[in-house]
Design a protein that fits this description.
It is built from 13 helices and no strands. The chain is mainly alpha-helical and about 400 residues long. It folds into 3 domains: about 70 residues, no CATH class; about 50 residues; about 210 residues, no CATH class. α8 runs parallel beside α12 and α11 crosses α13.
């Protein structure tokens, strides 16, 4: 391995570890009780080691492909490929022609000029319906977004910022679809419907929480509301548009969707049986509950990578597991948080005597942050190992 690659690998590994330590420090600072020393070592050490393993496996897999000539592309080619991937089907042939011409261009500066000019041309392609149709759709979407604020503000004041942001993001998706003159591709309708239902359940849970505890709205400040809207809208975007860069296989999304549901079911079981589990339940489910978080991401990624003989199907399975698990676990956390607080005044993560609104913050930190980050790390390891085991000798795939 070259010195530059070793330095880059070290920077990526250290950056991930430092980021996790910073996040953990924030969590500890928010907690009423400091964690036990052995618990802190475990909570800091396990995610850090997982990240080190995942980052090194992924980078070395990527470099082995580049060294073997498989998928080796420079930044200008990747930029143009990303622009071409955003084209509607009727423009794909033109985009492939541009990629072919770029392959013949020599010189770094010349390749950058060609890639940038082609990407700029992609951005200015007129929509099939014309600019007036796009302007009309944009105006309708804008009016709907403006009307959303007062309507939701009157019904659930604490969700006004969230509703406006979510409506604006979904509206932007609609405008983008019209601009591209393409219908949403749903190669996996069942998985897409599951993500949509999960997002709807998450929104319904937030509405129910704030209607029952309106004073808890102070725990959903504008920045948090925007983040919540962005994550849920992002889940919808990936599920509905099925981006080409993510892959077009059918097995990986189904594996990921099933895994995401399994992760949400694990989360519900842990909270229902976590306080005083029956002895029989504890014996039967103990190992399963302990292994599920990692397995829910590792297994589908490994199976998809092995079946597809490539890293991309494994990454596709990881992405689908995440976009299913995030809204579903959020939808589970809020009602479970209300139930737990009614029992002993604690939030769902075990803090003692805290306001019930704390669950709004904790649900975002864990369900839309810590859980998917750790799960995706498990998934990256599974995807790389699956691709390695499936690849023919010497292929570098």
């Amino acid at each position: 391995m070259s010195r530059e690659r070793r330095r880059f690998e070290a920077a990526v590994v250290r950056g991930g570890v430092v980021a996790w330590v910073a996040v953990y420090a924030v969590i500890v600072a928010r907690s009423d009780e400091p964690p036990a020393p052995e618990g802190a070592v475990l909570q800091l050490g396990v995610p850090s080691l997982l990240w080190v393993l995942a980052a090194r496996l992924l980078l070395r897999h990527r470099w082995s492909r580049a060294d073997s000539g498989t998928g080796a592309t420079d930044p200008p080619a990747r930029l143009l490929a990303a622009a071409v991937a955003a084209l509607p089907d009727r423009r794909q042939e033109w985009g492939r022609a541009m990629l072919g011409e770029l392959a013949e261009v020599q010189g770094r500066s010349a390749r950058w000029r060609f890639a940038l000019s082609s990407a700029r041309a992609v951005l200015w392609l007129p929509p099939a319906g014309g600019w007036p149709a796009l302007a009309l759709v944009t105006a309708v979407v804008g009016a709907a977004v403006v009307a959303t604020g007062p309507a939701v503000g009157a019904a659930v004041p604490g969700l006004q910022v969230f509703a406006v942001t979510f409506a604006a993001l979904v509206g932007a998706m609609v405008v983008l679809a019209v601009a591209r003159s393409s219908r949403p591709r749903l190669p996996v309708p069942a998985a897409t419907a599951l993500v949509t239902a999960g997002v709807a359940a998450a929104i319904a849970a937030a509405v129910g929480f704030l209607r029952r505890e309106p004073d808890a709205a102070e725990y959903l400040p504008p920045a948090a509301a925007v983040y919540l809207a962005a994550v849920l809208a992002g889940c919808l975007y990936v599920a509905v548009t099925s981006p080409r860069w993510l892959g077009d296989g059918r097995l990986a999304p189904h594996l990921g969707a099933v895994a995401g549901v399994g992760f949400a079911a694990w989360f519900l079981l842990v909270n229902r049986f976590g306080e005083e589990p029956p002895v029989v339940v504890a014996v039967l489910l103990g190992l399963v509950l302990a292994a599920t978080p990692g397995a829910a991401f590792f297994v589908p990624a490994y199976v998809a990578g092995r079946a597809g003989r490539s890293l991309r199907p494994g990454l596709q399975a990881v992405a689908w597991a995440a976009i299913v698990a995030m809204p579903l676990t959020y939808a589970v956390w809020l009602p479970e948080g209300l139930r737990r607080h009614a029992i002993d005044g604690r939030s769902l993560d075990g803090e003692v005597i805290v306001p019930v609104g704390t669950n709004l913050v904790d649900a975002m930190i864990f369900c839309l942050g810590i859980f998917p980050v750790i799960g995706v790390t498990f998934g990256l390891v599974g995807a790389v190992l699956g691709a390695r085991r499936a690849a023919p000798a010497g292929s570098g795939a």
